[in-house]
Amino acid sequence: MLIDRKDLLERIKDGKKFVVGVRKEFWAGTFDEAKTVQLVTRDGKDFIATRAEAEHDELESVPVF
User: Using the 8-state DSSP alphabet, how is residue 44 labeled?
Assistant: First the structure.
């Protein structure tokens, strides 16, 4: 699923939960979940990250399109 940054940020703020994962081969829509995507706020700026210490948008293991 592709979601632009603005929409993802709003969905997280609205309480939606997102995780990074990899689809299990031959298991239809079953995924191995890796890390939770979270909102990190530093110095009044919001970042989307998979770790609380992030200082910029950082989604580990997510491909860039």
Answer: T
Element of type H or E holding 42: strand 31-42
5-54 pLDDT, tens digit each? 999 999 999 999 999 988 899 998 899 999 999 999 999 999 999 999 99
C-alpha span between 39 and 41 (Å, rounded): 7
11 CB burial (10 A radius; 0-12, 13-18, 19+): middle
Cβ count within 10 A of residue 49: 19
**Which string of DSSP letters, residue by residue, matches 13-38?**
HTT--EEEEEEPTTSTT-EEEEEEEE
User: What is the pTM (predicted TM-score) of this model?
Assistant: 0.77
